[in-house]
Amino acid sequence: MSMFLDTAKISVQAGRGGDGMVAFRREKYVPNGGPWGGDGGKGGSVIFRVDEGLRTLMDFRYNRKFKAKAGEKGMTKGMHGRGSQDLIVPVPPGTTVKDATSGKVITDLVENGQEFVVAHGGRGGRGNIRFATPRNPAPEIAENGEPGEERELALELKILADVGLVGFPSVGKSTLLSVVSAAKPKIGAYHFTTIVPNIGMIRTKTGDSFAMADLPGLIKGASQGIGLGTQFLRHIERTRVILHVIDMSASEGRDPYEDYLAINKELETYNLRLLERPQIIVANKMDMPQAQENLEKFKQKLAANYDEFAELPLIFPVSTLAKQGLDNLMNATAELLEKAPEFLLYDESDMETEEVYYGYEAQERPFVISRADDASWVLSGEKLEKLFVMTNMERDESIMKFARQLRGMGVDDALRERGARDGDLVRIGKFEFEFVD
């Protein structure tokens, strides 16, 4: 069983802020003691941190829920509650974080130690010491803590490699990687020997170095999910140079040129931008009978299908078993890498953006009014629901403050416009109250 996992769906929940406290000074020599309740502590955030020691998303296979701790409640004597520590979740380099609902990219984590807050902790509620005014020097008002962010995330691992090896199964990709690097991929005389991507560090005789990934063999229809399908095609997206390995001996009974066209078609179908990357053709198994003859035919077909002014791809005849032609191939790859630009995986349309409103008129109404089956009015909306959650419904002053906030948001007027009458039932979540006109 493979222990490689490159996709995962998880849920994250940041910690709730601690509740503010209602308290008063009761000291013997302090007459008319005022409010003395402190603020609640901030809830912990959920933070992803890149750990270069990780290579897969296997840790997310059985642990799919990550919840940070809540902040402590406020205390007497005006003391703040302690904020909770952030929950640090290690991820491997090359992890793309997406919103599971919209599919938008939240962040792309590639550098060791890089951090990103995927769910922010809620702020602590204010204690009654914050609400003292000359008109109300002893308020019995305190806020509950703000709820922490909660969201569903989709994680994708796209390995970090400068060079990617592509080609049909059993064309010699794994053997090539094992010969030119210290990587030890599993190699056998059957299809789909490679069932996980393997990475090796290459150091040329001229002193250049780069990372090369051997990706599982593609077949026709891979971009539609046939064979290993798109399960590993995503791993080639970060590469800057592609080495297209072809069995020039045609030992599997396929035509080398048709193999070349078929693999490029899969790369194009999966992602058009993959063909923008410079590509080197590796004519492998040149020590086999018919290989030289097939190479000449391959070059003729390649030239016939390219415009006379178009630059033909580089072709390097090699034999991985006989270890022939590999130094020239690695040197040419290193030279091409120096010229190859970085390819952005995502454009602005793929990224998640936060809408920012300037001015009250441009801002959408912060609540929604609907009608329930029992004829009661239902109030919903992120801003309104957050205010409700942060209101301490056990104290009359807090309830009156919440009523004033609703009026200031225009809820009362909106209910009247919709036909609400005195005594109608209004519901926010499970909380019910009567509309007073």
Rg estimate, integer Å = 32 Å
Overall body shape = elongated
Instruction: Estimate what percentage of residues fall within beta strands.
Output: 15-25%
Q: What kind of oligomer do you see?
A: single chain
Low-confidence region ranges: 188-194, 225-229, 355-363
Based on secondary structure, the structural category is alpha/beta
The chain-level mean pLDDT equals: 87
The separation of the N and C termini measures 68 Å
Question: What is the N-to-C order of secondary-structure elements (H for helix, E for strand)?
Answer: EEEEEEEEEHEEHEHEHEHEEHHHEE
Strand order of the largest sheet: 10-11-9-12-13-14
**How many helical elements?**
8
Find the count of extended strands (DSSP E, 2+ residues).
18
The biggest beta sheet is recorded as:
6 strands, mixed
Helix percentage: 10-25%
Based on the model shown, name its key terms.
437 residues; alpha/beta; 6-stranded mixed beta sheet; 18 strands
Q: How would you sum up this structure, described in words?
A:
- By secondary structure, the protein is of the alpha/beta class.
- The protein is built from eight helices and 18 strands.
- It has helices at residues 173-180, 230-233, 256-270, 291-304, 326-339, 382-389, 396-409, 411-418, and strands spanning 7-13, 46-50, 65-67, 87-91, 95-99, 105-109, 115-119, 150-157, 163-166, 198-203, 209-214, 241-247, 279-284, 314-317, 368-371, 377-380, 425-428, 431-434.
- A six-stranded mixed sheet has the order 10-11-9-12-13-14, with helices on both faces. Strands 3-1-8-5-6 form a five-stranded mixed sheet, with no helix packed on it.
- The longest helix has 15 residues, at 256-270.
- It is elongated and about 100 Å long.
- Residues 188-194, 225-229 and 355-363 have low confidence and may be disordered.
